[in-house]
Amino acid sequence: MADSCDPFGEVRDVIRLLVVDDQELVRAGLRALVENTDDITVAGEARHGREALTQGRRLRPDLFLMDLKMPVMDGIAATAAIRTDPTLRDTPVLILTTFDDQDDVLGAVRAGATGYLLKDMEADALRAAVRTAAAGESPVTPSVAKQMMTQLARLSSRPNRSQELASLTDRERDILAHVGRGLSNEEIGRAFS
């Protein structure tokens, strides 16, 4: 983070963003939103993920503010590439998109996104989320958080493998062991006759 001075001469950290969106108007709007703050600045812009990687290596931002659906390289692929790039892997990626589809959310999280926001949020909430992500936390739009919690509950309600195996009879376990050894149904049948 870069330093700046407020009107009273105090030094403050400035969060340097790399705004990644294929729509010029969106990038300009985001730039205008942060120009009114003294602790966030736009260090650069990119039109797609591949350009974000190049700009990120050159500018070394504190945070990527990344759209999902873009040409050339989308936000999920770009986030995954950032996570594996030695010069960028520690830089948080905050997704800012119009898409709250469960597959998009899970894809972004799996790729290593720090947070997931929808573009319909208030300006103050976006600035707060940028500060939160830059501080190492994971801001998530409430509707997306609800989706994530529902998915987590669904996954945790499924029995785990040891519970499934424990519910098998001894004979079923023996049959399963024979299947694991590659025996055919006929060979398994002969083994139990």
From TrEMBL:
It comes from the Bacteria. The modification 4-aspartylphosphate is found at residue 67. InterPro entries: CheY-like_superfamily, NreC/VraR/RcsB-like_REC, Sig_transdc_resp-reg_C-effctor, Sig_transdc_resp-reg_receiver, WalR-like. Keywords: DNA-binding, Phosphoprotein, Transcription, Transcription regulation. Residues 16-134 form the Response regulatory domain. The keyword DNA-binding applies. GO terms for molecular function: DNA binding. The keyword Cell inner membrane does not apply. It holds the Pfam family Response_reg. Coiled coil: none annotated. This is DNA-binding response regulator.
